[in-house]
Write a structure and sequence with these properties.
- With 466 residues, the chain is mainly alpha-helical.
- The chain has helices at residues 3-15, 31-44, 59-71, 76-97, 103-116, 127-148, 152-165, 176-181, 185-208, 212-258, 268-285, 296-312, 319-342, 346-350, 354-364, 379-387, 407-419, 439-448, and strands at 372-375, 424-428, 449-455, 458-463.
- It has two domains: 3-29 and 75-342, no CATH class; 350-463.
- The protein has a four-stranded mixed β-sheet with strand order 1-2-4-3.
- Helix 11 runs antiparallel to helix 12.
Length: 466
């Protein structure tokens, strides 16, 4: 491929990002995104996952957000990371498709993937958006080794498969078709070697930090209990609505993409896409919640299936009409995104948040040595308050408390809290995250603190001077 053609493809892939530009001006963070961004602040202030704060996801997703926050300490760093990840996902998707399709069909697949994952899809940076990139890189190197005869490519493929696993476990299921369709011992062993090297390195790091046992409990034992306990409730409240939104916003790749299962084509490529759709759906359904972002990787493979269907029924012979429809679709989806992007301002994003007022009050009345504790605060408030007080030594409190909490953790936390009482405690009105084991905080609050400031759902309590 010559330099001019490479540059054209590069700029086309950048152009496909236009429907997502509105995300840069998105004022509301997704539920999981807020937790990950809060975890980033914990890590960059010297805390360790599974030991100092608790959530039930594998470690790399936290360290990815922590890296973004370290590079540029602002929520905008996560927005920029979204675009970098999606652009690289586009690039590797294109490289994968070039093994089997011509340039036009490869670019068409990438285009459909971009527009089908725009609209409400481009409103958060979640685990599925992150792990899709190493999934595609792993597929690319596996196919490269298979087609080009480069045996080391299987080793590299295994490395990226391990990254997928330690970002979100269910993402690894998407790679199973590679092993099922090309089950040869030599390839499998090289793939597993790459996987094991990364796994040993990550597990070794956790052992050196004494967080391995907590990691096993939080992400495997507790995660299983957590999913069983709340999955039905989440599905009942959000599942049907999420599935409808997935279909409504992406029907133009889902409906034609389904017809790939009726195409009589035994080629390796068609079989691979069929299996990738099936396993990505299985990966999305496994958490039992049916939330919209779980289906993000599935739409990637549905986009390819749609192009295969168009090719088989010869729709692409009406190229001018087809391109006109695509331009209309692209414009229809891009217009609201561009409008939102044109209105970008930090003030507009920040004005929606109660923590801005709270943190401004604390800033004016505290020093760098003071500690702040966030109690019963929504995770968005936690993130924004911590983000705006980077100089302050605050008590962090993760939103998802594991149940049952270890008694030694409760005792240690109580002793630390009583020994080093924070100057300010920020209390939310909601008790949704309360836990009976932490009623001692309320007792301390009544005895040693007085309310000094309130704004909407949050109140600030100050430690009484002796």
């Amino acid at each position: 491929m010559n330099l001019k053609k490479s540059a054209l493809i590069f700029f086309l892939l950048l152009f496909f990002l236009v429907p997502k530009l509105g995300y840069l001006n998105e004022p509301m963070m997704d539920w999981d995104e807020g937790i990950y961004e809060t975890a980033a602040l914990y890590i960059n202030n010297g805390y360790l996952p599974y030991k100092d704060f608790f959530d039930h996801k594998p470690p790399l997703i936290y360290y990815f957000f922590a890296t973004c926050d370290f590079v540029y300490h602002s929520f905008i760093s996560f927005r920029i990371a979204y675009f970098i990840i999606f652009f690289l996902s586009e690039l590797f998707l294109y490289l994968i498709l070039r093994f089997f399709l011509d340039e036009f069909l490869s670019l068409l697949s990438v285009f459909l993937f971009s527009v089908s994952t725009s609209s409400f899809w481009a409103s958060s940076l979640n685990g599925e958006q992150i792990f899709l990139l190493p999934v595609l890189i792993s597929i690319y190197f596996f196919l490269r080794g298979n087609i080009k005869g480069k045996s080391w490519s299987f080793f590299v493929s295994g490395i990226f498969a391990a990254l997928v696993f330690f970002i979100k476990y269910n993402g690894l299921l998407i790679l199973f078709p590679l092993l099922l369709l090309e089950f040869k011992k030599e390839k499998i062993w090289k793939f597993l070697s790459g996987f094991l090297i990364v796994s040993i390195f990550i597990l070794g790091f956790m052992l050196s930090k004494s967080i391995f046992s907590n990691f096993i409990y939080d992400t495997i034992i507790f995660n299983k209990k957590y999913m069983v306990a709340i999955s039905y409730k989440i599905f009942k409240e959000f599942g049907i609505y999420s599935l409808w939104n997935v279909f409504k916003s992406s029907f133009f790749v889902i409906i034609p993409g389904l017809f790939i299962f009726f195409i009589k084509d035994d080629s390796f490529f068609v079989k691979l896409i069929k299996w990738l759709i099936i396993f990505s759906l299985f990966s999305a359904i496994l958490p039992l919640k049916f939330l919209k972002h779980y289906f993000y990787p599935t739409l990637c493979f549905f986009s390819i299936a749609t192009v295969i269907f168009f090719k088989n029924v010869n729709i692409l012979r009406f190229k001018k009409l087809f391109l006109t429809i695509l331009i209309v679709l692209f414009t229809f989806i891009s217009f609201p995104s561009l409008k939102r992007f044109s209105e970008f301002s930090y003030e507009k994003i920040n004005r929606f948040y109660v923590p801005i007022v709270i943190s401004n009050f604390i800033k004016e009345n505290s020093s760098k040595k003071d500690r702040i504790f966030l109690w019963r605060s929504h995770f968005l408030n936690t993130y924004y308050l911590c983000n705006r007080l980077p100089f302050t030594k605050y008590f962090f409190w993760c939103i998802f408390l594991r149940k049952p909490l270890p008694e030694e953790f409760v005792r240690g936390f109580k002793n630390d809290f009583e020994k080093c009482a924070p100057k300010y405690i920020v209390v939310g009105k909601s008790n949704i995250y309360s836990n009976r084991k932490f009623l001692f905080i309320e007792k301390i609050l009544l005895k040693k603190y007085r309310k000094v400031f309130s704004y909407k759902s949050e109140s600030v309590y100050k430690l009484l001077e002796d």
